Amino acid sequence: MIDGPLMSNWITHVLAFLLGAGAGAGALLVLRYGSRSVGARDPHKALRRLYKDSPSFFDEIRRELDKPEFRHVREFAILESSRVTFVSEDLRFVYYEEDLPGVTALAKALEDHGFADDVTRGKTPIFRIRENFVAALKSL
After folding, report:
1. Phi and psi angles of residue 123, each rounded to the nearest 5 degrees, phi first
2. pTM surpassing 0.90?
3. Would you tell me which CATH number, out of the four given (1.10.10, 1.10.3470, 3.40.1350, 2.60.40), belongs to the domain 39-137?
4. Cα distances (Å, whole numbers) of residue 90 to 44, 62, 103, 126, 140
5. Can you tell me the distance from the alpha carbon of 140 to that of 137, in angstroms, rounded to the nearest whole number?
């Protein structure tokens, strides 16, 4: 039989393992099932709601994506105004807060609903639209 400090060390290690395993399993469950908003369960419904709030953004990006030279562009930058200079090695759409108030919040909402990813590397917000967004645009 194990007795004394060796026994308490063994019990401490087992308890630490069990607590860690439980915390990891709990975090996994939250990530898997608990972190989705109600709108994320029906992404097309969420997209229609966003469209109703800002149809000009959706109509503009749809028109741009319909042009043959922009068919494969999947990123857009957000600038405060057209007076701000933006230089990019990659071909991107550019939207201005002064022309489309709330476009930054809209881009974050697209990200929250799984339609875009924030790929900002510097100070200028840059978002990459996903293919599910491009496909869903056709149904709006």
Report:
1. -90, -25
2. no
3. 1.10.10
4. 29, 19, 21, 11, 28
5. 5
- Residue 84 neighbours by CB under 8 Å, 6+ apart: none
pLDDT digits (tens, 9 = 90+) for 5-32: 655 666 776 655 655 655 555 554 554 5
CA Rg value for the chain: 23
The answer to whether residues 61 and 137 touch, using CB atoms and an 8 Å cutoff, is yes
| Residue listed under structure tokens 């994506």 | 65
Burial of residue 111 (CB within 10 Å: 0-12, 13-18, 19+) is: middle
In contact, 113 and 46? CB cutoff 8 Å: yes
Summarize pLDDT for 82-126 with one digit per residue, the tens: 999 999 999 999 999 999 999 999 999 999 999 999 999 999 999
Q: How far is CA 79 from CA 63, 68, 76, 85, 103, in A?
A: 20, 25, 10, 9, 10
Contacts of 56 (CB under 8 A, 6+ apart): 100
Total count of residues recorded for the chain: 140
